[in-house]
Every structure is written in structure tokens, then in C-alpha cells.
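Review this:
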Amino acid sequence: MVEFVFLSPFVTGVIAFFIPRHLGRPLLVFTGALHLVLSVLVWLRQPEPLFKSYFAVTPEGMLSLLVISLLFFLISIYTIGYLKVSDIKSEHIFTGSMLLFLSTMTMVTLSDHIMVMWIAIEATTLASAPLIYTHRTSVSLEATWKYVLICSVGIAMALLGSVLITISMDVGNVDAPVSFSALTAVATRLDPMWLKAGFAFILVGYGTKMGLAPMHTWLPDAHSEAPSPASALLSGVLLNCAYLGIFKTNKIMLAAGLGDFSGLILMGFGLISILAASTFILKQTEYKRLLAYSSIENMGIIAFGTGVGGLGAYGAMLCLIHHSLIKSSLFLTSGNILLGYGSRLIEKTGSLANRMPRTFVAFFGGFTAISGLPPFGIFIGELFVILGAFKAGHYISVTVLVVSLCAIFAGFANQAMRISFNMSEVTIGLTEKANLVWPQYVLLLTSLVLCFWIPDTLYQTIMSAVTSVEGGF
């Protein structure tokens, strides 16, 4: 059953390339529903993989898988309405690539072998590149090549890091499978010098795909040019997959007693990402690029919290879940704004509250949530990250973090107010159909509910993931 979770969207994805458009759209929703059912079954039953040397059901993997599955199902429903009112060239390529993208991301969450993880993350690049080039413009072509080239260079560095970790096994005379679980078990016998080098390359490599600064330059262009359903997947799901590779490698570092080394590097890259995001958000002129830089900020918070460990790691895991839910909602909402106003420029929008009230509710709710305001989960996650940093004695770093978050909020709030309430003479060209709005509402409501009530099984999964990176609380 485990392998079937990523094989099923692969098969339907291949089929989608060869069937008529009117069949591809329901196939997208059907696959999303099937994938969600299979993911929940795997989470509840914890079955053994057929290929145990390559795949495993882990707490952090299951959290990512559940988020991926829920998001894709809701995004697929939104996509049906989006495709009816938008000009998507070669729709069969778009739907097929969406399904293959789901397959490769699922494979990442279930990968245990270090090289299978690398292959799966590289496959996400290849599967998602056609989504960015959907509109077939010169700008989208540039964004696609930038995405492929920069991420491929990063993935090549991650490959080198993986090789260096295998060298640490040879130097330490360790005979074990090259899997994350096996390497974590024998981590104390690995050569620390080669292990440190391997982690550094993997962090930079997968950090490129995760959107950590200064390797983030592909992300604003790709998210801006991709259709909104694809942007929602890129930001809400793909970044988590890259983080998963870093998270699993960090577990090896902690088990080897090198947590101080990996933690400081993670915190450093996290702060750089937050500072970079705050710089660009203050002067941003396009709302989709604004959301992209917000993703860079949130990935920085997640990296920072993971580096802190303890309470910080718990906060990072909460931010991971809620960022996916909220940012996907915002990108879907940005699709409505683009369809209505016909421009990505903030100055070409305005009066959203009056002209598209249902979209406004989703947009302003998403803005409130992603800005870290209560009662949404980003607030709780960031609070735990800050408390964890104070508890660990990182006073200067956490001060920089808080100041940067305040600057980001000010910049984001300014732009959100302009979009929502500024007077505008632009003629609206979109009717707010239900399936273009209610998926965003469900995503925001899910984030809100998880702030007040987390099912025991889900809470145990979160805690199992957190305690694997330095003992939880």
C-alpha cells in the first residue's frame, strides 16, 4: 500500500497526457480524493513498505504527506473552476504535470534511502517545470529556466553532500544501509569531519529548493509566473519536501552529537532568509511576488526553529503545517484577484472588499493568518520558536528575528490594505463561483481548528517528529 500512494498519481498523470480535456479535469479530482484516502490509511495503519530498504513511514514524512494530500485535493477542486475561466494552453500537459508533481512529492515523503530521496526531489523539479511555463510567454520561459538551472545546481550540491556522508561511513568503518534511519542508528560511528561536510552541502543543496536565502532567487519568479493552482503547490508543498531532506539529515547530525554545528548553520540561514524577505516585502509591487517572499520568510522561520531545537523545533513543525494551509489559500485567492483585475500589479487592484467580497474574506483572513496574528497557527508556531530561542540563550538572534518579523508585517499590511480598500477604477471581470472560493475557506478553517483542537493521533505524530530532533520539550 505504501508504494501505491505515489504510484497511483503517477499512473493517472501519464494517462492525463493522452485523454481529452473534459476527462482530465475530473481525473484530477478523482486522483486527489484517492490519494487522500490512501494517505490517511497509511497514517492510521502504518503498513510495512514493500521495498523496506528504500521507503519508510516516518512521523515527519507522514505529516508532510497528510498536508500534501489534503492540499492537492482542495487545489484540484479549485483547479476545475479555474480552468473553465482562464486561458491555459495545452491543458492536458498542465493536468498531467500536476499529477506527476503529486507523485514525486509523495515519493519524497516516503523515501528513507538517502539516494532515493535525492532522486525524488530532483524529480519534483522536472515534474513542476512545465507548470511554470504554462502561459508560454518569454517571461515564463525565463522563470522556468531559472528554476530548473538554479534548483539543479542545488540538487547537484545535495548529491555531493550525500556522497560525503557515504564517505563518512567508509572512514568510520561502518557497514550499514545508506538510509536515514540506519545512518541515524549508527551516527556515533560516522566520521564527524566528513559528516559535517556532507550536512553543509545538503543544507545548501536542498536549501536552494526550500527557498532559503541567498539561494532563493528562483522562487519569486517561478511563483509569480506559474498559474495559481501550481503556485499553491509550489509554495505550500514543494518547499516542505526540500525541508524534509534537511530535517532527516539534521537527525543524523543530532544523533552523532553534532547538533551544535548543524543548529547554528540552520539558524544562520534562517535569519538570512527572514532578513532578505523583509527587505523585498517592504517595496514589493506585485502581490504574487509578495506571497513568494512571504514563503521565503516562513521557510527561514522553520529553519531557525529547527536549528534551535526543543520548543523551537515544535514551533517550526507547527509553522510547517500552518504555512502550507494558509499560503496555499492565499495563492488560490491571488488567482481570483488575477482573473478579476487582469494584472499582478498591486497598483492595478483595489476595492477588493466591495468588488469581490467573498474573495476579500479569504484574502484578508489569509493575510491575518500568515502575518502571525492570533488566533491562527502561525502565531502559535512563531511564539514557540521565539520562546525556544530565548530558552536556549540566543538573545541576539531572536531579537533580530522579532524586529524582522515586525518589518515584514508592516510591509505586508500596507500592501494588503491597498489591495483591499484603495479606490480603483478597474472593471472586474470575474464572477465569484463557489468552487473558486470555498477551497480557500476550508484551508483557513482547518488552520483555525488545529489551533484549538488537534486529534490525539495527529498530536502524537507531531511529537514523534519533534522528539527526534533533540528531545522535544
In short: DSSP finds 19 helices and no strands in the chain. The mean pLDDT is 90. Residues 258-473 form one domain. Residues 138-171 form the longest helix (34 residues).
